[in-house]
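tool_call predict_complex ligand=zinc ion
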Amino acid sequence: PVAIRREDYRAPAYWIDTVDLTFDLDPAKTRVLNRMRLRRNPDVAPEPLRLDGDELNLARVLVDGQGASFRMEADQLVIDNLPDAFELELFTTCAPAKNTKLMGLFVSEDTFFTQCEAEGFRRITYFLDRPDVMASYTVTIRAAKAAYPVLLSNGNLVEQGELPEGRHFAKWVDPFRKPSYLFALVAGKLVAREQRIRARNGREHLLQVYVRAGDLDKTEHAMASLVNSVAWDEARFGLPLDLDRFMIVATSDFNMGAMENKGLNIFNTKYVLANQATATDADYSNIESVVGHEYFHNWSGDRVTCRDWFQLSLKEGLTVFRDQEFSQDLCAEASARAVKRIEDVRVLRTAQFPEDAGPMAHPVRPDSYIEISNFYTVTIYEKGAEVVRMMQTLVGREGFARGITLYFERHDGHAVTCDDFAQAIADANPDSELARLLPQFKRWYGQAGTPRLAAHGVYDAVQRTYTLSFVQSCPPTPGQPFKEPFVIPVNLGLLGPDGRELPLQLADDEAPGAGTRTLVLTRAGEQFTFVNVDAEPVPSILRGFSAPVILEYDYSDAQLLALLAHDTDPFNRWEAAQRLALRAAIQAIHAPVVGTSDQPLDQAYLDAMRRVLRDPGLDAAFKELVLTLPSETYIAEQLEVVDPQRVHLVREAMRAQLAAGLFADWEQAYEQHRETGAYSPDPRSAGRRALAGLALSYLCLAARATGDAVWPGKTLQRFKDAGNMTDRFNALQALVSSGHALAAQALARFHAIFKNEALVIDKWFSLQAGAPDRGGDILPLVKQLMKHPDFSLKNPNRARSVIFSYCNANPGALHRPDAAGYVFWSERVIELDAINPQVAARLARALDRWSKLAEPYRSAAREAIMRVAAKPELSKDTHEVVTRALA
Ligand code: HT7
Ligand code: ZN
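tool_result ok
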């Protein structure tokens, strides 16, 4: 496979103005007639027309109505000697029922769906399948009416009618030009929840959420989220809905979460369907952000799209930022906004930081790829969002909104670059730090790796000054041995000895400022001296996680306890607790002997946690976050050499200590927070359920150690009586994760109740495959689960629920001294690769961090990766991942 390089970008040799597609749908053999108007791009030296194709059968090629000569070069259809402007007619067939890759046109539960991003349109017809070729689409769909009563595509329905032999047709015209990756078609037996809304500007819109007949009662939340999204984008950024009709359709077979096709979003059922009996609070919250995310793409992605796939973060980073802001703005209380921020940072640090330190590390704007599907990463999405967030920090919230307005004014209807975005934000704020530092700021797009920021504070009691020094560095990443300094906005506060916020005054300032101040770092090393500081402060650095860096500050335990108790910044309060727990974990991991009876946590930590639990001024959701220990993955990232079993044992020992040490407090927390009233997924109620759930899991864990039967019994009762899925699932999880004997009957009952609810059965599988390992019991269980009649490797959600829950999310169970976990992983990667390369390549990422492992894990993991790499006929998706891992 060859690498595609960003620097090789060339404008296309032809433009496509119009595309007229006619589909005759048949699962075994769908016929596609494609009539296009093309013209030569006058800015590019003449060359043959090269159209991309993949797994198509070509039956006819006509140029201006005449048979034309053409040749095939690999997968491309090449035509020479074309006039400057012409009509091209292509007739092809494809086999949707055999399409297990779920890219292009495929069938899921007797319904046709498409997925064209990034390069799926070429599996439907030959095309210039690149995002900078934007055309106007007319689509006619013909199909058997009884089997496919609903026929959908992008834009407006302009005609429909009957055809002979029980067939019918629908014709759709999209009023907006679009790149091929935004094309969509759906055909099947579907029903829709509908809502008409009137936007601020008075325009009326029809919103529709299409699902299978039995699922209509699970669409209320998705519709409400869509209505909120439309209103939010108009209110916050002045971006209205530009279509008469906006449709969402759910499918249970999907490689990713959802897809923002213009006017016809296609969603994984996981991010649409919810009612209180089947969906947890987390599901409700994910639906809100994914519905928002896809809707916000209507501007950031569809109206203004990417020039090439290296610019992917232009739309993805910006749209994640927008969906994060949306979810925060929907929170009624500041504390709930802080909780959302902490959750987002937790994802970034547990998933993106390891990516940035591993073999797949790449800049937010990558320089090369072999398979673009491998670059839908947490770096493009989550780190990309942090880069946008830093821009907002540097220009202010209003300045950022001005920048967004300018960006869309300048580039509406065009395919542009990350540079164009940053330039628009800076141009709208000419006096800002961003405008002053723009070339340096853009290093965030070009340099991979997570910067380390070492900070050191010195108090001078005589001068009453406090000097903070910063040194930034960034480790080498593949292809980038050296890094230049980044622009790092550091939000800072200082706490006095009584825990109160100190005024901040730098030597040059005329007057002290109150609260948080943003320091903008630009050099490898720099110092800031604050004057009129009456006592030695505790610095609260990087408030709100103002930059995606690793902050190193040698806090004493006493300072961390002070921050946990008093910081006005909720993020740093939570961070102080994480640092204390992390420190205890690392000390225990490095101690000579370790066993489950070890006590990594000291009394001061346990007392602090008790104070948090009992604090009436803190929200339940925040308490739950503080009392949740850092994950095994996050702990492992802090170590040079990782013994995964040791990490697992130490974390389990910490959990046991928290369970036993705070037993009475957990009892109280559970009784205080268990919900009895009507269910509502709002953040406050969800936070109460989360804390009650955590309490229950600690109570069951403590009971396991003491042999007490009361709490497991109560938990089983809670499981049976629960009025919503969150409480029911939390109870089930408490029994399963504590390894209690009652778990088996609860699991059996859960399966029996929900056997017809695919998304709930996914949870059932996932819970078991992701459970804490005890003596190597999870791998045999996973193998057994794969033999369950409900298991299928072809359905991505189901495959993820078992295999990914084990390989990607259960390190204590995967990394076995006998290497059986790695053997299992390599067999599944190879097996999946033949079915669905995108899903296989994601699974292949599970061993990205193999080179950090201690022996014998390191050698065994490497051998397993080599076994996959040696497999002939591997997809380029999986091939790229494993060869990078071994490089
Ligand atoms: N923009 C969408 C990307 C996507 C995708 C990419 C590759 C293969 C399948 C896919 N399904 C959706 C999703 C999003 O970020 O909104
Ligand atoms: Zn997206």
